[in-house]
Amino acid sequence: MALTTLEEILQPESVDEVAELLLSHGESAMVMAGGTFIHGLVARGLVTDVTKLIDLSGLGLNQLQTDRKSLRIGSAVTFADLEGSETIRSSAVLAALVDAVSYPPQQIKNAATVGGCVASACPYLDLPIVLLALEASATAAGSTGKREIPLDELFVSLFQTSLNTDEFITGFTVPLPSAGTASSFEKIETTANDLSIVSVAVRVSTGWRKSRNSRIFVGGGIGEVPFRCRAAEVILDGSKLEDEALRKAAGAAVEEIEPFGDHRASAEYRKAMTGVLVERNLRQARARIQ
Fold this sequence. Notes:
Layout (H helix, E strand, L loop, with lengths): L7 E3 L4 H11 L3 E4 L5 H6 L8 E4 L8 E3 L3 E5 L4 H6 L1 H4 L5 H7 L4 H6 L2 H6 L7 H7 L3 E6 L2 E6 L4 E3 L2 E2 L6 E8 L5 E8 L9 E10 L2 E11 L6 E2 L1 H7 L6 H14 L10 H22 L2
Parallel strand pairs: 1-3, 2-3
Antiparallel strand pairs: 4-5, 5-10, 6-7, 6-10, 8-9, 11-12, 12-13, 13-14
Helix pairs in contact: 9-10, 10-11
């Protein structure tokens, strides 16, 4: 399905120029990175006013940088870049990123970008809940400069973010906790090209042999934005991540969520599978802690 209203593809040479284009063209312009989700937006009738695409490929936003405290992911970094990074692949903390990008077919991995996946604000996609579980923040650039947005403040509703009309995402910062932290992601889907039925991302940390700062997020057909299972996190924190604590946390997550039913799955199925995936991911993350 083509974007029949398209008149021009703009290729800015700087971040400031992108902000100027967004400011001057308003809702008739849309930022494009890998372009893999444009078809989905067209099919849903969400881009009928778009006549210009702003191509970010020439801005050098495809860098991965790591220091002792954080991982910096440029918004144009592709899924294949994440999967091929030895730094990410060897990190228990970042393991959920590798889990998430292992699902799509290679054609999507080669083109889809982290920035596009997050900025689309689609709760059925995988990387948003992973980055939420990792407590990432997004860097937004606009006509008045740059600002950091905690990812849990970015998502407003389905396909809507808290970005201003002249802002776009240039990258993400993922904090790297000390040893004793690991993450995991898993989802249920019909095919590799379909959206998730339900997905779960977790991060667990241990200190003095007790769990702390746990994060559990659920995506898929759970709501218009990813859902954080706070009651389940409370059960984990202070525990020794023993099997009973993991089972109780999974049960609490099931009670917290209010999924809906659609042509992919019933609400009851999503509830049941959330419990399965939460416990399974917690076990996987626990096994990854070094």
